Amino acid sequence: MAQLDTRQKLAILADAAKYDASCASSGTSKRNSAGGKGVGSTEGMGICHAYAPDGRCISLLKILLTNSCIFDCHYCINRKSSNVRRARFTVSEVVDLTLNFYRRNYIEGLFLSSGIIGSSNYTMEQLVEIARQLREVHDFRGYIHLKTIPDADPELVRLAGLHADRVSINVELPTSRGLKRLAPEKDEGRIEGAMSHMNTAIIDGRDARKKYKSAPKFAPAGQSTQMIVGADAAKDGDIILKASSLYNRFSMRRVYYSAFSPIPDASAVLPLKSPPLMREHRLYQSDWLMRFYGFQPREVIAASEDGMLPLDIDPKLAWALKFRESFPVDVNRAPRDMLLRVPGLGTKAVGAILKSRRYRNLRLDDLGRLTQSIRKIRPFISCVGWQPTRLTDREDLKSLIVPKKEQLELFART
Questions:
Q1: Are 379 and 388 in contact (CB under 8 A)?
Q2: Span 350-378, mean pLDDT?
Q3: What secondary structure, in 3-state letters, does 356-368 show?
Q4: How far apart are CA 297 and CA 45, in angstroms?
Q5: 48: how many CB neighbours lie within 10 A of its CB?
Q6: Which of 147, 220, 334, 337 is deepest in the core (most CB within 10 A)?
Q7: How far is the C-alpha of 171 from the C-alpha of 183, rounded, in Å?
């Protein structure tokens, strides 16, 4: 491998890390270096920009330790047989980059992943050592997210949780069939076994903190994972069921979805085109329905057509149009779980409705002030002075709700 300087390595390894979507830094405990103690922070405004659920922009140094790899996964641009320029950081280079970028106020933390070099254990040792030096030698108090390796020794993975805010293990593909076909060197059982061990360690760490204040924090922001969408024949229904299983069995904080992107010198088993980015977006919306709106995975799948979510409308509207017998919902009497099923009503709007209706019966104009789009919710609700009558059952209801697409003019007159 030709000798590269740090700047050249950064250009290669930051670009190689762009395919990993799971870099949101929400959910960790708050730490800062106020008072002159330590270096770094997980708070405030701060590169890779991720957005937390509360809207904060999080700046992370997002890199790979190396893009060399002993595995030959078909979908990965860094696979062993790929003709890409290789680079590798040393432990001290990553530590110095992180500290120097933070001191310049470029970043608030580090997202570190790696190809497999030498062996899974050797690579995991390098990742843990970087996090250890940042925490113990330099007292770095910013955010650290480590990608762990399921084949590594469980003790090494456990050590990662002692130094990192969040750890993640990529499930890669939604079905075992797809994993065997596109990543034959990876094993679903080992991946899920590592997730299970990590979940147990996180729970044990939280229990220990409740009993002993001196107990060390263990991955306070939990664990996450990522699935590739569109690289195999898995349908949206398969992905939704897999995500639900991961949330229920391993207490995942987030499941991320990454649309497959065609790579140079691709294997013949891969599709020639990437899936529509809207498909990735619809899967995130379905994920939100299960996590925050009380939908069961089978209900979300029921709104699909042959296992695929519609691309032209969001999955909640698709469900409402398919199961119109559940509507209209009386906004002055309906429980929270039914209000959450009304298209156009988010969690904040439902909270405002529940709070406001304690003092008065709501009318349509009241809802207009509490929601963003009264047009979308009208066919699915009833309130004082408003009944949708036959509007809910109209065959052309979808066209009345969904705005017509218009071609924008580049030099339109104002």
A1: yes
A2: 93
A3: HCCCCCCEHHHHH
A4: 36
A5: 17
A6: 147
A7: 11
SS3 content of the chain, % helix, strand, coil (to 5): 40, 15, 45
3-state secondary structure of 207: helix
- Nearest alpha carbon to residue 120 among 73, 75, 86, 152: 152
Phi, psi of 38 (to 5 degrees): 75, -175
Distance separating alpha carbons of residues 361 and 357, to the nearest angstrom: 6
Residue of 110, 109, 197 lying closest to 150 (CA atoms): 197
The class that CATH gives domain 6-224 is alpha beta
Is residue 134 within 8 A of residue 98, CB to CB? The reply is: yes
Structure tokens at 377: 């919710």
Enumerate the CATH 3.20.20 domain ranges in the chain, comma separated.
6-224
Backbone angles phi and psi of 330, in degrees to 5: -80, 110
CB-CB contact of 116 with 88 (8 Å): no
Mean pLDDT on 184-193: 95
pLDDT tens-digit series, residues 303-331: 999 999 999 999 999 999 999 999 999 99
Listing DSSP states for 107-167 in one string gives: -SEEEEE----S-HHHHHHHHHHHHHIIIIIS-B-SEEEEE--TTS-HHHHHHHHHH-SEE
Question: What's the token pair of residue 351?
Answer: 């909270």
Return the number of other C-beta atoms located less than 10 Å from residue 201's C-beta.
20
CA dist., res. 260 & res. 75, Å (int): 8
pTM for the full predicted model: 0.88
With vertex at residue 121, the alpha carbon angle to CA 117 and CA 124, rounded to the nearest 5 degrees, is: 75
Give CA–CA dist 275/296, Å, rounded: 25
Q: Where are the beta strands (DSSP E) in 191-251?
A: 223-229
**Helix, strand or coil, per DSSP, at residue 330:** strand
